[in-house]
C-alpha cells in the first residue's frame, strides 16, 4: 500500500518542511493542488462543506504546482509528486490483474478489492475510512484508488 500526503491549503512557507516530514514518515508521495483561479462569485453550492461555502477564497494562496513540486523535490530524495484536486489517493500493486476483472468497494472502514478469483480487504486509515470512494483504475499494474472527503466531515 502506498500513501500520498495532500498539501492543499498548507501555508506556502511550510511546504518544504511538510515534504521532508512526509518522506521521513514513509509516505510514497505528495499531491499538490493545481488551481488557476478562484471565481469572484460562486453561483452553486460548494458540495464539501455543511454550509455550502468553501473554506477558501480569492486570497487563499495556491502556489504554482510545478514550481512547488520542483522546490519539494530539491529537499527530498525518494518522494514522488503529482498534481491533484484534493482528496486522497491510495495505490495498490496488482501486477498481473486484468483491468476488466477488477472490482472495488468500500465498506465499514475497509477497501474490498476483487481481481480475478482473488478477494482482499484492506483496512483503511481513518482519513480514508471517513472519505467517499471517488474512483479506481488499474494502470501499469497499479490500482490507483481516489477518495474525496465526505461533505461536513
Describe the structure.
The chain is of the alpha+beta class and 153 residues long. The chain folds into two domains: 83 residues; 62 residues, Immunoglobulin-like. The protein has three helices and nine strands; from the N terminus they run E-H-E-H-E-E-E-E-E-H-E-E. Strands 3-2-1-4-9-8 form a six-stranded mixed beta sheet. The chain has a three-stranded antiparallel beta sheet with strand order 5-6-7, with no helix packed on it. Strand 8 and strand 9 form a beta hairpin. It is globular, with a radius of gyration of 17 Å. The chain starts with a strand and ends with a strand. The model has no long low-confidence stretch (mean pLDDT 85).
Tally of contiguous helical segments: 3
Secondary-structure-based class equals: alpha+beta
- Major beta sheet, specifics? 6 strands, mixed
Question: For the largest beta sheet, what order do the strands appear in spatially?
Answer: 3-2-1-4-9-8
Descriptors for this entry?
153 residues; alpha+beta; Immunoglobulin-like; 2 domains; three-stranded antiparallel beta sheet; 3 helices; 9 strands
